[in-house]
C-alpha cells in the first residue's frame, strides 16, 4: 500500500491568484490562471434592488456577460475569503477557452492539503494548496516514486473518493434545464416578449403563430445540442469487466471501479479501459484509435530500478485507454500485468474529449455578428417607435395604446422567425456534409469553414499513403551485407516481430530488396545449419532520441533511427554521408540509418552499416485537391515531422511548392537564421545558388520565393514573436512566405496554428490523421480528421473518406451555408423593415394591418421563402474568392439601405396615387367593445399589395446562385414558392373576391388595378436588378480585397 504525501506547512504566500503550467500528452501545453473572487454583500443587495426595478432583465444580462456578473456581484479577494475563482486558459498569452467562473469548496481533510480550495473546471477537479497557493490538477502522478516501487504496487483503495470512478460521463443536462437555457438566449427572450405583446393587443392568431415558430426553433436547438453530446458520449463511454489482483486475490470487477494503483491483468484481444503502466510481460497493441496508424506496437514492461518515474520517455511502457491489446505474454507463460495510472477524464482519451467540448478557436462567429446587426435594427426600431408615439399623440390616441403600437413596430423590425430560419440552414448543411461522408460535432464551425484561406496538411497518411514500400538499401563499402550478414540481421531484429529466425531465412528476406545501384542481389543460402538469432533485450523507439535498438544472443547491439541521430553515435561515417542522405531524401524517400556494435550495449562509437530506403507514395487525390485549392486562392502548406528534403520533394510533387519558384531552406547556425537555396528540380543545394542569406536579404528579394523551415527554426521564430512586440509582424511576414514545416513535434503543430491565427486575415484549416495532429486539429479554426478512431474527438469534422478531397467539400458546403445564412438574414431583416415601414404609414393614417393581412405575408410569402431558400445546394466548383461574412459591411448595409429606400418610396408613391383617385374614401374607425376594430380598407390594402410585391422581389433577389450555390432554377421547391407568391399577388390585385371570405382586402376599380400592376412590376424589377448587378459586383470586389492572398506574394 502506498501512503499519500501531504504538503508540508510553510510560510503562507497570497498573491490573489494561482497559476498552473500544464504539460499534457503529446507535448500539449497551456497555462491556467485562477483569480480569487468573493461575493460582495453590499453589491448583492444593490443587485437584488436593480433586479426588482428592471423586472428581472438585469439577470439576463449578467447571465450572458461574465464581466458584468463580476462587476455586479463579486470583488477580488485574498485566498482565505474566496468563494469563487475566475479561470483563464491561455497558450503563449493567447486565450484558448472561454473564461469560467467556478464555485470553490473548502475541503477540511483533503488528502494532499489541509483546508484546500477545490473546484471543477472542464470536467476535471483542481485544488489550490493552502500554504503554497499553488494550483494543482487532481490527477494521479507517480513522479515521486521509483520505477521499482511502482512495479511492486498492490493498490490505492483510499483514493477512490479522490479520483472518482473510471468512467467518462458527459454531463448532459435534463431536458427542462436545456429548455431553460434555450429560452433564456437573447433571440428567444425577444420572441416571447413579442408573443406577449401581440396577444395583449388582441392579435391572438398572430401570437400563436409566433409561439409555434418559437417552439419549432427551440426544438431544433435542443435536438442538435443533445445529439452532439450523445455522439461524443457514445465515442468515449464504455464499461467492461476486468480482472484485477487485490489483497493477493484475483477478482473480476467492472472497469468503472478501477482506481490508480490497481494491479490489472492484461489479456489478449481486450480493450484497455484506463491508462496503465506495464510492469510484467509484453503486449502487442493496436493504437490506431489514438495514432490513426494500423501498425501494431510492441510494449515492454517497466524496468525495475531506482530512477524516478516519468511518463515522458516511458510511452512504450504504457497502455492507453481505448487501445486494444492484440497479444499478451510473459516469460512465465502468464498474462501481462499493469498498474492503473490514470482513470476517467484524466486519461489521454478523456483529454481528447474535453478538448473538443471546451476548446475555443474561431475568430469568426456569425451568431456574434448577427447580434450586432440586430442591435442596429433594434436602434432603427426604437427610432420608428418614437415616431409612432409622436404620430399617435398628434392623433389623440391614449399614451398606453401609443406605447403598445410603438413596441409592435420594434417586434416587427426585429423578425421573430429569424433564429428558426438560420437554424434550418445549419441543419441542412449538416445533412449535406453527412451525405459527403463528413461527420460534424460542432455545427457552429460550418460557417467558419467558409472563411478558410489557408490549409495545413500533415504528410504521412494525409497527403501520402499510410504504409511504406521498401525500395532498397545503400550499404557502406567494405561493410557489405552478405559479408557479415549485419544488414540482413538488422532487418530481422528491428522490423520483424518474431523472436527467433534462422539466419539463412533472414537472408532470403533481404534478397527481396531491389538495390539502388541497379545490380541485383544473388540468392544466397547456407548449406550448413543456419545460425539461430534471438533478441535478448529491446530498447523501444523514443521520439526524443529518434532511434531504437536491440541486443541479440550474439552479443551485438543493432540500432536504427533518423540519419541525423545515427550519425552522431557512429565512428565510421563515410565522407559522402550527407550527399547520399540528401540525394535520396530529396527524391521523397523515407530514410532509416542502421548501425551496430559488438559486445558493448552503449549506443556510442558504433559502426555505420548503411541506409534503408522506403518510398511513401502520394495518394491519388492529393495533387488534384491541392491544385483546386491553389486555383481558388487558398494557400496550402505542409506540416510534418519528416526530413526537410523529403518534405520539399513531396511538396513539389503535390503542387504545394511551385516548380518555377525559388525555394529556400532556413537553418540555424549559432543562433543566427540563415537561408540556403534548394534546386527545385533536383532538390539540392548548388554552388551557383544563393547560400547563407540572412532573413532581411530574403525578405527583400523581388522574385517568387517559397520558404521551408524545421521545427528548430520554428521554435526560434516563436521565441522571437513572444520576446519583442516589434518582432511580431516580422515573424508573421516570414510565416506568410513559408510553405514547408519539417521536423515538427506535435506541440509545434498546435503552436503554429495559434501563431498563424494572429494574422487577422488568416482562417486556418488543418487536415491530419493521427494523435500527433490533435494539437493542431484543436487549435486551427477548422479541423478535419481523416480517422474514425478516437483521435477524431479532437476535430470538429471527421471524414470517413481517408484522403484530402473532402477538404474541398467541407469548404464548399461551408461557403454555401454562410451565403444561405447571410441571404436569409438579409431577407428576414429586410422583410421586417418593409413591413414596419408599411405599418408606420398605416399608423400615420390611423389604421393598421388586420390579423389576416399579417398572416398572409408571414404564412404565404415569408416563411416559405425563408425555408426553401435554404434548400439550394452548394456549387460544384470552388470559387477563387470567399463569400462576404461581415454583416456590418458596405455591400450588406448598402444593399439593405437602398432597397429599404426603394420600398418605402414605392409605398409612398402608390399611396399618393391612391389618394388622388375619385373612389378614394377616408377610413372610418369602428368602435367595438370600447376598442378599435381594424378591417380591410383602401390604405392597408394598397400597402399590403405593394409591400408583398417588395417582399417577393427581395426573396428572389437575395437567392444567390453561382459561384457558391447552384442556380435557383435547380431548387425545385423554391421555384414553386415563387410561383405561388406571384399567383397570390395576381389574385390580390385582380380577383380579390376569391379571398373575400378571409376579408383580406377591398376591391379596386379595373383601371386602377392596371396601375397597381405596372408600379409593382417596376418596383420588383428594380429591386432584383439592383441586387443582381450592382450589389453582386460590389460584394465580389469587397470579398476579393478582404481575402488574404499572401501565398501569391
Automatic annotation (TrEMBL):
One function term, GO molecular function aspect: ATP binding
Organism: Paramecium tetraurelia
PROSITE patterns: ATPASE_E1_E2
Domain of life: Eukaryota
Top-level EC class as recorded in UniProt: translocase
P5B-type ATPase N-terminal domain segment(s): 37-93
Similarity remark: Belongs to the cation transport ATPase (P-type) (TC 3.A.3) family. Type V subfamily.
UniProt entry keywords in alphabetical sequence: ATP-binding, Magnesium, Membrane, Metal-binding, Nucleotide-binding, Phosphoprotein, Translocase, Transmembrane, Transmembrane helix
Bilayer topology term: Multi-pass membrane protein
EC number of the protein: 7.2.2.-
Positions of the P-type ATPase A domain: 241-356
UniProt keyword Membrane, yes or no: yes
Location of the protein in the cell: Membrane
Protein's name according to its UniProt entry: Cation-transporting ATPase
Membrane-spanning intervals of the chain: 45-66, 206-225, 373-397, 409-430, 887-910, 938-959, 971-990, 1010-1027
GO CC terms, sorted: membrane
Catalysed reactions listed for this entry: ATP + H2O = ADP + phosphate + H(+)
GO BP term (any one): transmembrane transport
Main location, first listed in the record: membrane
